[in-house]
């Protein structure tokens, strides 16, 4: 166990999710690796390649020198181009090559994490194009990212599960931390208003975002009387929207909106928090 308990939650969540991914993909035949996922332009192989690529960078391995094709429609900016290199370089890899690399990566990364002795506030190279973050934030981001991609793979392969796993709790808290910005800044909810989110399923919670007189949003777990909007949906729908995996109109039958419909639609249009 790491000497810093504040890191252990993220390490445990990452381990749980990456082992789940390994179990999901090990039995796949070659054709199943090509199944499309909710990530634009990415197959099952591509999602696994992304996980492998970022984790090898966390280990300190050099990035591959690779020129991307010019016809990748889903590569639209520098961040997506940065992420695509580790993916595209593995598109010719066979199923045995993919599973072998993944298993070896998990062994190496798990060993590194077990021996982690740096202070949680140590600045390290982050997973997003090398931006510096604290070690604690870096491990939280990796646990979040790997769980979200585990769910991408589960939906693509028709094998649901782990919606209440350790990674799910980290993802919930990460998504909720961005809600005040979504409601108050992006959607422009009026000063003095409140918006309630009532989420059911494996992870049940209710949160209220309140906008103060200066237009700043805060979030809490108390009930609001007379909110401007109340959203009701299941946890999987929430995460698909918050992770930008689905357009609001595609899950309209799964999202109940009570109150100001114009504000509700503005919030849903701006709901995605991941790049």
Automatic annotation (TrEMBL):
<dbReference type="GO" id="GO:0016853">
    <property type="term" value="F:isomerase activity"/>
</dbReference>
<protein>
    <submittedName>
        <fullName>Maleylpyruvate isomerase family mycothiol-dependent enzyme</fullName>
    </submittedName>
</protein>
<dbReference type="InterPro" id="IPR010872">
    <property type="entry name" value="MDMPI_C-term_domain"/>
</dbReference>
<dbReference type="InterPro" id="IPR024344">
    <property type="entry name" value="MDMPI_metal-binding"/>
</dbReference>
<keyword id="KW-0413">Isomerase</keyword>
<dbReference type="Pfam" id="PF07398">
    <property type="entry name" value="MDMPI_C"/>
</dbReference>
<dbReference type="InterPro" id="IPR034660">
    <property type="entry name" value="DinB/YfiT-like"/>
</dbReference>
<feature type="domain" description="Mycothiol-dependent maleylpyruvate isomerase metal-binding">
    <location>
        <begin position="15"/>
        <end position="154"/>
    </location>
</feature>
<dbReference type="Pfam" id="PF11716">
    <property type="entry name" value="MDMPI_N"/>
</dbReference>
<dbReference type="InterPro" id="IPR017517">
    <property type="entry name" value="Maleyloyr_isom"/>
</dbReference>
<feature type="domain" description="MDMPI C-terminal">
    <location>
        <begin position="171"/>
        <end position="265"/>
    </location>
</feature>
């Amino acid at each position: 166990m790491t000497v810093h308990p504040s890191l252990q939650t993220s390490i445990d969540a990452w381990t749980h999710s990456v082992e789940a991914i390994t179990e999901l993909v090990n039995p796949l035949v070659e054709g199943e690796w090509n199944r499309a996922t909710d990530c634009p332009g990415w197959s099952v192989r591509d999602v696994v390649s992304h996980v492998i690529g970022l984790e090898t960078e966390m280990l300190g391995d050099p990035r591959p020198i690779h020129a991307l094709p010019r016809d990748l429609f889903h590569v639209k900016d520098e961040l997506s181009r940065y992420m695509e290199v580790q993916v595209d370089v593995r598109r010719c890899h066979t199923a045995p090559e993919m599973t072998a690399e993944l298993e070896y990566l998990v062994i190496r990364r798990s060993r590194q994490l077990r021996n982690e002795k740096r202070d949680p506030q140590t600045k390290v190279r982050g997973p997003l194009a090398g931006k510096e973050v604290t070690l604690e934030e870096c491990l939280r981001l990796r646990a979040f990212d790997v769980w979200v991609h585990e769910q991408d793979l589960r939906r693509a392969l028709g094998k649901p599960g782990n919606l209440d796993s350790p990674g799910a709790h980290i993802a919930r808290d990460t998504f909720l931390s961005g809600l005040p910005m979504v409601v108050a800044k992006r959607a422009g909810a009026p000063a003095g208003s409140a918006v309630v989110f009532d989420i059911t399923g494996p992870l049940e919670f209710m949160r209220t975002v309140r906008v103060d007189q200066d237009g700043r949003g805060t979030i809490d777990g108390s009930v609001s009387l007379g909110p401007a909007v109340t959203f009701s949906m299941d946890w999987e729908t929430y995460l698909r929207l918050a992770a930008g995996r689905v357009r609001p109109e595609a899950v309209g039958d799964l999202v109940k909106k009570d109150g100001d419909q114009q504000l509700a639609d503005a919030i849903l249009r701006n709901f995605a928090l991941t790049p």
